[in-house]
Write a structure and sequence with these properties.
A two-stranded antiparallel sheet has the order 1-2. The protein has a domain of about 55 residues. It is built from three helices and two strands. With about 110 residues, the chain is mainly alpha-helical. Helix 1 runs antiparallel to helix 2. Keywords: Membrane, Transmembrane, Transmembrane helix.
Length: about 110
């Protein structure tokens, strides 16, 4: 009888795999799905705010209220879709910038103390 690997998903269901590599790939996919959901929410909020600000900046305030609302919703949904689609790349860039900032901060502290 072959050895089986199982794991519990975030939603409570149990999945079974034939190899540990498949189980690890499933864990990685779940992690990136969670990251994509967070970037989706952040992109939705940021896109809505930017679209709302663009109404005043570019002089679209004479548009009817329904058109302004449509502009804000379209901006929010568009930015959410783009940020969710690029979530792996954005996550890696964010982590890289964080690591660079930490190293730079430690270097600045050491430079100031020496």
């Amino acid at each position: 009888m072959a050895k089986r690997y199982s794991r519990r998903r975030n939603d409570g269901t149990v999945e079974y795999y034939d190899s540990p590599e498949e189980a690890q790939a499933a864990r990685r996919n779940d992690f990136y799905e969670d990251i994509a959901a967070r970037f989706l929410l952040a992109g939705f909020l940021l896109g809505g705010i930017l679209a709302y600000v663009s109404i005043d900046v570019f002089g679209f305030s004479y548009w009817p209220k329904a058109a302004q609302f449509g502009w804000v919703v379209a901006g929010a949904v568009g930015c959410a879709a783009v940020s969710a689609a690029l979530s792996k790349i954005l996550y890696k860039i964010l982590i890289t910038l964080l690591a660079i900032g930490i190293v730079f901060g430690i270097g600045m502290l050491l430079w100031a103390w020496l």
